[in-house]
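Memo to structure team: turn this sequence into structure tokens by end of day. - J.P.
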Amino acid sequence: MADEPVHPLYAPVPRWTSPVASLARRAVLGGLGRPDVDGGVLLHLPDGERLRLGRGAQVATIRVHHDRAFVRMLLRGELGAGEAYTAGDWDADDLPAALRWFLRVTAARGVESPLTVLARLPTLLRHRRAANDRRGSARNIAAHYDLGNAFYREFLDDELCYSCAIWEPGADLASAQRAKLERLCALADLGPRDHVLEIGCGWGALAIHAAQTRGCRVTGITVSPAQHAYATARVAALGLADRVSIELRDYRDVTGRYDAVLSCEMLEAVGYEFLPRYFAVVGRALRPGRRAVIQSITMPDDRFDAYRRSVDWMQTYIFPGSLIPSLGAIRAGLTGTGLTWTSADDIGPDYAPTLAAWRSRFNAALPTVRRLGFDDTFVRAWNLYLAFSEAAFAERTLADHQLVFTRA
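Reply from structure team:
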């Protein structure tokens, strides 16, 4: 087998794997061929053979272009399957549907093999080194969010909201995102006399919405230079500089007291070991009797320990240093902060249509995306990221909670 090019979005397959490709194929297909998983897939193999896997109505057709896909999957499990897709080793006619089926198989199969766990150790060690201390946080955020504002404008709504929307019947992406912003402001009970802190303000959508609709003052912080520059310019263009301040600052450097604290899907970038520090900052910043509203993707408690001791494709190639917290981990992080958890609403079912809208817009903009300098491997990786996330929320393997806290 010829050497593969080494691309930053997938690991190469060692040269010695070619003789064991048939063994890898048998092992992987044996694991995938579970009769107790709802939904079937039609699998086209590289030699022309076709296999039907699963039961019930066919949900997708998967075409495996090269047996090295099975080698990747055998050696690296879910991480290897993602690398194989990014490398072009397999495709699906309906990628989200195929990934939903994979998630069902994975849930039914349970524990990974010792071989897979061992093969993933180097990746796990690299992930551990991507800790979210001050320097690591800035580096990890830049790896994802500093791809260029022009890139994100191609598939997000005009306000550049990069979090779960709230969909009402007949809504489009823009109105669904406005509904989410309005819900967060309502949960925080914002008024015109309030000074609000937003931790992880992104491109400024929530800060601007709060100032425009509630008349409050907002201080938004981000560690992304690209987001800081964009949000600052947008605030000035809208004539809101007297009410909205965007600062390039780590959350650990927050000082002062605020009437409300908002944070929308930034908690996933904090890291498990820094959750107590994050909530201590929120507790110190929040005035007594007022509310902090935090929206975060969450991992089920019964899967969290195994998840945080491993590393997946998303953490390796899309969100370095990230960790999706569980509700239990969040509750543990509140100890000694003065914060009381008062409510939790799961809007996770709305994330699947949000991600579907982003992926549709992303693919419609591919000519522009490529002109911005992103190659086919990057395009495949982002299609996988968006489709896998859609599948995970559709299967309810992930949730997205709007959490409300008060301070005594």
